[in-house]
Amino acid sequence: MLIAKNWVTRLLRSADGTRSDWSVTDTELDSGFVRVGFETEGFSAIPETTGPLVIGRVESIEELTGFKKPIRHCHVNVGDANGTGELQSIVCGARNFSEGDHVVVSLPGCVLPGNFEIAARETYGRMSAGMICSAAELGLTTQQNKGIITLPDDVDHELGSDARAVMGLDDTVFDVNVTPDRGYALSARGLAREIASAFGLTFKDPAHEPGVAGIDVSVPTPDGELLTVDVRPETKAVRFGLRRVTGTAAGAESPLWMQRELMLCGQRPVNAATDVTNYVMMLFGQPMHAFDVARITGDTLVVRRAEKGEKLDTLDDVTRTLDPEDVVIADGSGVLSLAGVMGGASSEISDDTSDVYLEAANWDPITVARTSRRHRLSSEASRRFERGVDPALVEIALDVAAHLLARIAGGTVDSRRTLVGDVPAMPTVRMDVNRPARIAGMDISHDTVISRLEEVGCVVDRDGDVLTVTPPTWRPDITMDADLVEEVLRLEGLEDIPSVVPTAPAGRGLTPAQRRRRAIGHALAYNGYTEILPSPFTEADVFDVWGLDADDPRRRTVAVLNPLEADRSVLGTTLLPNMLDAVRRNAARGQRDVSLYGVEQVTVAGEIDRSPMPDVRSRPSDQAVGELLASLPAQPLHVATVGAGDIEAAGPLGSARAYTWADSVESARVVARAADVELEVSAAEQLPWHPGRCAALSVDGTVVGYAGELHPQILERAGLPARTCAMELDVTALPFAPSTPAPVLSPFPALMQDIALVVDEDVPAEDVRRTLLSAAGELIESVELFDVYRSESLGENRKSLAFALRFRATDRTLTDDECSAARLAAADAAGREHGATIRA
Q1: Angstrom distances, CA of residue 216 to CA of 188, 219, 403, 491, 739
Q2: What residue stretches are annotated with the B5 domain (predicted)?
Q3: Most confident of 78-92, 139-153, 595-609, 619-633
């Protein structure tokens, strides 16, 4: 919100006669805004003009011909300011002034904003010794208006006197950052109220006492309905009002003081009727609109929703196709205005307008916000309606605007007025009078609490320690006692609240899930894997590339309504797509030997596609709660590893070793050891893995993941290196290891024995290892496979598995006989379970 410092200070000086000499520096005023909770984007003084800037009167105008644009040679009386008293010869291209008009003249030697120095020079065949100034040339606006500044004739201007005071060039413009919940502050009225609290000044509301703003409202008391207005309920319009001014001077302009205030607020003066509505909006915060009565068809206005396909030419010269959700004002010929956003060109004020309808309304904030965004049309009106406008301002704004227009343009205010809707009653809020002091941790007297709430505009009733507070109509954001506490502390000064660092409670450390996740990450990093952070988003067609069945659980994705990237529009149910993308990027950039890991959540759609919407006025039933929970997606934690190229580089100690499916299985075992669970590995078929090189990873008989070499066809379609391997495991599905006593370490030596068993080719080595471990008794410490041998001498489809058995006792040194007996018992069990025989 752009606001001129002098406008705010004038309102406050007029409100408090005892402080009529009150003044404040720019920096102090900026601090005052901050003190009551309004940050500013900065402030800047009107750029300085130095040298002779004076008031003059145009005595004669000579129209020059023969040029591509209209040029006028003027003789201007600047009194004795030029040192001679003679008329000043000035060439000017503006057309909006006449002989006898008072103007602002910069004489030679004057330096205008932008370091633009005025000098006498010959131009268009005439000598020009000065310049007749526009508002933009004086720094009052950044937009070039339709011409130069003309001063009102009803003021006795001394020719040759300094024009700076008349133009108010000693002013500063503040850019106040108004938060969305404080729409009332988008006005001089609202900001003056806040500054009054910041500096302890009396505030008189110009909406109730217009004389504070220099406006003496004299309009007829309404004695009838001006025009029939049909406000449809579906529009959610709160109030709607009309007032009429007849007989205004066609093409009338607003006075300089009004144009100046509008320009400093960032508005461009247009004509008297439009400027009045904009001025009232900037003063009170109530947007208004002016209609040309001659362009209204029929005797009824309808406030309704737009019909599908309806069009409207708005004031910005754009033809807009309306949406059925848009609220419009229409007459017998069609749509006149896009309610709360912008008027239409068909009924706009023109140079021929003499009768004007002034409209003020209170629209539904959400409807206006959606319309503004739908049409990408943000206006000063929509900004205010979106944040909430005081509904009690409708008739006040109409009366003030009608009075100003009649005074400026010479019209007559019609005694009739149309007003639809009542001011809604504000809800009351109850609060313990001691609550602000308890929240702030400081002493705040009861009288201070009440006075601060009354400063905001609240009506406060006290019953013991309980306050019943009715917020003012311009504060719809006050709905609970916490809002009242905020207002009291804000006005008391947030900087005065003591800063006490609370004592941190004793930490409970990491949760078991957090410890497990950290242990998994550390274990993989210690084993040579590099961590990456897989994106939660993935391509919607990745599972088509993999060739997954239509009912595969991994296709139960959750779509993103507004994806950051169009080709990554779903949340991933697996980490592999993004892990493999990392492999592809590394390979494309020359890094072909990679071993990566990631630990992130995946998202699996719930059982119900759409969340139910239970009634929020009471607690939902158990069934409704169950449906809500069932609609939520599951987000289990997964860990994945991918590898390609060589895992061990070639060097003096030997040749390179490629990353194989066995390494991906081992990465799963690393995870299992870090999570302290026993992992079972078995052959499986699961895309995108190679059917002959895929292992299912199970815990207690439940499959929790897969590992192995990826299918070559999928690798080719995805542009990945050949023989790429991967592992993915559901960490959430892993059971937490029970709390067990620390293991007992034996001080006695271990005894090693080997055993080679011949089994059928299709017998998994892991099954044989588990059988040996189980049958070797309590003395066995570990069983490890160290060789697989195949030969014709073993027989067709037979293989030899060599295992290293480690035995140890906790209370003695074992003998060879004890270990041999346990070894033979384990071999017998392998024979019974798998048909194994001891290889001679």
Answers
A1: 18, 10, 8, 32, 84
A2: 424-499
A3: 78-92
Per residue in 511-547, pLDDT (tens digit) is: 899 999 999 999 999 999 999 999 999 998 899 889 8
Give the confidence band of 104 by pLDDT, cuts at 50, 70, 90. Answer: very high
| Residue 680 counted as an annotated binding residue | no
Taking the complete model, does pTM exceed 0.70, yes or no? no
Q: What is the CATH number of domain 53-167?
A: 2.40.50.140
State the CB neighbour count (10 A cutoff) for residue 132: 26
The pLDDT assigned to 503 comes to: 82
Which DSSP string corresponds to 137-198? GGTS-SS--SSB-EE-TTS-PPTTSBSHHHHT-S-EEEEE---TT-GGGSSHHHHHHHHHHH
**Is 158 marked as a binding-site residue?**
no
User: Cα–Cα distance between 327 and 363 in angstroms, integer?
Assistant: 9
Task: Answer whether residue 18 shows pLDDT above 70.
Answer: no
Would you report the helix, strand and coil content of the chain in percent, each value rounded to 5?
Answer: 30, 30, 45
pLDDT at 153 over 80: no
Which one, of 283, 291, 296, 285, lies nearest residue 339 by Cα?
A: 291
Alpha carbon distance 639, 224 (integer Å): 77
pLDDT of residue 487: 95
Give the sign of the dihedral formed by CA 573, CA 575, CA 577, CA 578.
positive
**CATH second-level architecture of 751-838?**
2-Layer Sandwich (3.30)
**Percent of residues, the chain, with pLDDT higher than 90:** 74
What residue ranges of the chain are covered by domains with CATH 3.30.56.10? 2-46+172-213, 429-496
Residue ranges, CATH 2.40.50.140, the chain: 53-167
Helix or strand (DSSP H, E) at 530 = strand 530-531
Both tokens of 797, joined, read 């489809």
Find the angle CA(25)-CA(27)-CA(33) to the nearest 5 degrees. 105
Element at 357 (helix H, strand E): strand 356-362
Q: Using one digit for the tens of pLDDT, what is the confidence trace for 261-271?
A: 999 999 999 99
**Residue 257: CA atoms inside 13 Å, Cβ hemisphere, count?**
11
Report the Cα 530 to chain-centroid distance in Å.
35
Q: pLDDT value at position 741? A: 60
Contact status, residue 413 vs residue 357, Cβ threshold 8 Å: no
Which pLDDT belongs to residue 596?
A: 96
As annotated, the residues of the chain forming the CATH 3.30.930.10 domain(s) are 512-614+622-730
Query: Is a pLDDT exceeding 80 seen at residue 744?
Result: no
CA pair distance 176, 7, nearest whole angstrom: 14
Average pLDDT taken over every residue of the chain:
92
Average pLDDT over residues 97-122: 94
The answer on whether 209 is annotated among ligand-binding residues is no
Q: Which of 189, 588, 157, 199 is nearest to 396 (CA)?
A: 189
The residues of the chain that CATH labels 3.50.40.10 are: 228-420
Asked if the model's pLDDT at residue 565 lies above 80, the reply is: yes
Helix, strand or coil, per DSSP, at residue 215: coil
In the chain, the amino acid numbered 783 is V
Fold classified for 228-420: Phenylalanyl-tRNA Synthetase; Chain B, domain 3 (3.50.40)
Q: Which CATH architecture has domain 512-614+622-730?
A: 2-Layer Sandwich (3.30)
The fold of the 2-46+172-213 domain, in CATH, is Phenylalanyl-tRNA Synthetase; Chain B, domain 1 (3.30.56)
Per the annotation, does 685 bind a ligand?
no
The pLDDT tens digits for 592-623 are 999 999 999 999 988 777 777 877 778 888 88
Sequence-distant (6+) residues with CB within 8 A of 17 are none
Q: Which CATH number fits domain 429-496: 3.20.20.10, 3.40.1400.10, 3.30.56.10, 3.30.470.20?
A: 3.30.56.10
Q: Note whether 329 and 341 are within 8 A (CB).
A: no
